Amino acid sequence: MATTPQLFEEPFDADEYIERLAWRTPGGGSKGGAEAFDPKRLLEEFENHIEELKQLDEKIQRRVEKLEHQCHREAKEFAHKVQDLQRSNQIKEAADIIQKLHLIAQELPFDRFADVKAKIASKYHDLERQLVQEFTAAQRRCEIGRMREVAAVLLHFKGYAHCVDVYIKQCQEGAYMRSDVFEDTALLCQRVNKQVGEVFQSPETVMAKLIQNIFENTLQAHVKEKLDETRRSDIEQYLKNLYDLYTRTTALAAKLTEFNLGSDKHTFLSKLIKNIFSTYLESYIEMEKDYLRTRSTMILQRYYDSKNHQKRPLGGGSIQELKERIRQRTNLPLGPSIDTHGETFLSQEVVVNLLQETRHAFERCNRLSDPSDLPKNAFSIFLLLVEHLCVDHIDYALEIGLSAIPSADAKNANLYFLDVVQQANTIFHLFDKQFNDHLMPLISSSPKLTECLHKKKEVIEQMEVKLDTGIDRTLNCMVGQMKHILATEQKKTDFRPEDENNVMIQCTACHFTRPVCVYVSRQVERVRKSMDGKNVDTVLTELGVRFHRLIHEHLQQYSYSSMGGMLAICDVAEYRKSAKDFRVPLVLQLFGTLHALCNLLVVAPDNLKQVCSGEQLTNLDRNLLHAFVQLRVDYRQARLGRHFS
Fold first, then answer.
1. Record's family (predicted)?
2. How far is residue 145's CA from residue 149's CA, in Å, rounded to a whole number?
3. What's the N-to-C CA distance of the chain in angstroms?
4. CA–CA gap between residue 204 and residue 216 (Å, rounded)
5. DSSP code string of 544-561
């Protein structure tokens, strides 16, 4: 029979238990049965069962002892809780009493109740200190309920502010374990914001004080450390750090606005930020300009050094420079031009670097400037861009380019100024894009807008004058080269062949027409690559007009026989084909008219009047028509002048 505690549950009969045990044992029954009575076996069963009962007793005893121990422990804990509650209540009662006594003592005359007042003050401070200590201990144990009770009691004591200070200090313990102080601050404030409403009756005040403490201590120390170490040693890194720290601080403040910090939290946070950065922001724009000036100068100098070029001083007062300026603006031969070996002294890489530095400066200016100073500061940065990009780089390249343009009578001249024009146009587009994208948003609503637009217009107009001068002198060089080709190849007798009958009707292209046309086509293509927009048509129109004038004047240097006139017509037809490359209606019209004029060299005398009245010639000046007819060798013999009298 298994021995279990359930066998001894009430009602329990010992005799019946023993009888049942004996009956269940084989050979142990007292009334006989299938087996004979066996006393030894019964004794053995009793001894075994007694042993089991002893083990059961020990097991039950251990369980009883365990339950008794647990009961004593719980009773002790309960007693402690009761004592704590009683003590807590006595604190509240004592606080109420001492608070009232303290108020009453303030009204008592000092000379009669000095001792009483001193004792009350001492007890007041002792109790206040005990309450703060109790609050501190409860905060460390994370006992929100106890913290709330003690804070409620301390609310009427002068030490309540100290209680808040202790809470704020302990909140920050272990909060800044990572390298990102801004992220740690955001997480800390989120955690405290959930708790502060459960502890204090004015959570917005406590939260505002916590944030103020963080800004005035932790963040200010972090900013000072980051900025002071680079302020004198690395101005570029200092400006980057200042921008980054200010940006992250304002972003943190934006996050903190989601908390209840009082009625005017935006002004509150703005003042905290200003207190941290005011000393740095006061000197920001001057440091920005100094850095930008130094950096831009270095970028330019590094470029000129890479070209082994020593910058020429411009705008001086020497006789040589005066000659150079006169030569640039006229076609007077005042000495040889400068040989730049095809170098334009314009670098897109330099331009991109200058614009990038300026763009960063505009971004920092937008973030770090006071709104009232932003337009003025942005304009000062723009002036530095104008100084280094437009004056020191582009304008200098234009001056050098103008100096390198050969005189109009130079032979086999290399005209690199069009390359300068092409690169200058590209740079102008980049400059204009930055003006619109990064400067305009900073000044668009201020009086500085007009000043900026005026400065930009002034700079561009000054450069356009030099570009126009250079293009004009380049076109003169092109025409001069054409003139040189014509003068070299053309002979006085080309249009008066000795044997009129044996001359094939063809142009003189084999001698000079083709070289001129090839040269013209090449220059037209160069102009197209160097210009953009309406400038292409404007320059090609001017080149086409000069090309036409050159051919017109060239043709007027010769006398023409009937066969020579046919040759001239063929030549002009070739020039007319070249004129089509210009894709300018005026140029095509001029060469069409010139072709019609050449017909006057071959038409029968009796038909001159009819030809002059034709569609293409009828509106021309009669003197011009007469001048062309005078080029005919039979002018006097046939008395052709009478047709114009």
1. Belongs to the SEC10 family.
2. 6
3. 163
4. 18
5. HHHHHHHHHHHHTTS-B-
Q: Which two tokens stand for residue 384?
A: 């530095």
| Residues β-bridged to residue 560 | 632
Tell whether the model's pLDDT for residue 644 goes beyond 80.
no
Q: How confident is the model at residue 623 (pLDDT cuts 50, 70, 90)?
A: confident
User: How far from 334 is each of 3, 321, 477, 499, CA to CA, in Å?
Assistant: 135, 11, 15, 47
DSSP codes joined into one string, 1-30:
----GGGGPSS--HHHHHHHHHHHSTT--T
* Helices (runs of H) and strands (runs of E) counted in the chain: 24, 0
Mean pLDDT, residues 349-373 taken together: 96
Report d(CA 410, CA 522) in Å as an integer. 18
pLDDT of 93 > 90? The answer is: no
Average pLDDT score over the chain: 82
Q: Tokens 């980051």 belong to which residue? A: 226
pLDDT exceeds 70 at position 32: no
Q: Name the one residue in this structure whose structure tokens are 């170490």.
A: 229
Quote the pLDDT of residue 159: 67
The secondary structure of residue 603, as a DSSP letter, is S
pLDDT in tens, 232-258: 889 999 999 999 999 999 999 999 999
Q: How many CB atoms lie within 10 A of CB 472?
A: 16
Output the 3-class SS for 381-424.
HHHHHHHHHHHHHHHHHHHHHHHHCCCCCCCCCCCCHHHHHHHH
At position 608, the amino acid (one-letter code) is: L
> Residue 567: in which H helix or E strand, if any?
helix 562-580
